[in-house]
Amino acid sequence: xxxxxxxxETFGCTFNQADSEIMAGVLREEGAVLTGIDDAxxxxxxxxxxxxxxxxxxxxxxxxxxxTYPEKGLVVAGCMVEIDPSKLEAxxxxxxxxxxxxxxxxxxxxxxxxxxxxxxxxxxxxxxxVKVPRVRxxxxxxxxxxxxxxxxxxSYCCTRFARGRIQxxxxxxxxxxxxxxxxxxxxxxxxxxxxxxxYGVDTGEKLSNIIKGISGIPGNFRIRVGMMHPAxxxxxxxxxxxxxxxxxxxxxxxxxxxSGSDRVxxxxxxxxxxxxxxxxxxxxxxxIPDISIATxxxxxxxxxxxxxxxxxxxxxxxxKPSFIHLSxxxxxxxxxxxxxxxxxxxxxxxxxxxxxxxxxxxTEEENRRLVGSFQEILVVERGRKGGFIGRTGSxxxxxTETGEPGSFRRVRIRDATGTYLLAD
Length: 424
What we know:
By secondary structure, this protein is an alpha/beta fold. It has 14 helices and 19 strands. It folds into three domains: 5-121, Methylthiotransferase, N-terminal domain (Rossmann fold, 3-Layer(aba) Sandwich), CATH 3.40.50; 141-369, Alpha-Beta Horseshoe (pyruvate-formate lyase- activating enzyme), CATH 3.80.30; 373-423, CATH 2.40.50.140.
């Protein structure tokens, strides 16, 4: 690519981060030079569109880049390209586009943008995102997309229109890529997808077998398993519990419930009940006592009444997750729930504030239970404000003053907040 200098900026989830790493790898293999934004000839913005606040951040960032760097080529990639092309056209009509299924065509889009041309590369493909060139954003962490898309039909979701129905990647390629990553010095393997537990629905394979296969790779490393939909976990609950018992797997279960009300879950078309969520949590905790639970909550779904909201609060009080991700409901493009009336914004804000306070109390209480304990942590990076960031075996962040990225350390926890631990 004649040394075209490219800067990539990423919004959103771990899967999006993996997409950016693949684009970087493909571009570098073609002769591009990865650089900072000021030195770049072409800027790639890998967009996320899952939430309303993120949409605004993405749009504002695109506009800011166009104002600040009018002479540079611009490629807009990621979910916005497929979900909301009309809005994207309105704010960046002279930018090239690259859909999330088209990563291998990144050189084509970059060449066009560098020459002042507009190239729109969109639509679905059957490309496999495993065993392809990549440039890791953290040399110690290797992200493996194990499948793309999902089989869900959640009424509030727009991401599925960008990612499509599920396409699981071959298990032998996934395990082989993990083996190569560990051999190259990686200390953390992250398995990512829109729903990791849905892996193999289309091929007859199971996530638990992937985890067990990677756990069998020689070396001292950890495996982080990404978000799992409760309904998908139920198809392989026994296998997943056994797979998570490996000392190489973080005792960390990301299981979004979204609401503590079965009525609202039905309106959301989630495909699971509150009791099924409880049962999965109880099963994992009974066999892996130190496991940490992460869950997601949508506050103020259009049909959520006050009683439903209180059911959600009660569920959180009961389960006491170590990680709680809160989102205020807002309509998303093409989502079926967008035909409903949103609840009053003042009421939405009231419920959100109440849940935020509850979240901080629960997570800080859970973290404070570890104060005074000794934990083995994997140091994964330097802190932005100094020190080092590590993860306990339950994936809880630990800030420590000393360390070496990639090392395992035994530390004493001296204090805690609602989001991280502090170590001596």
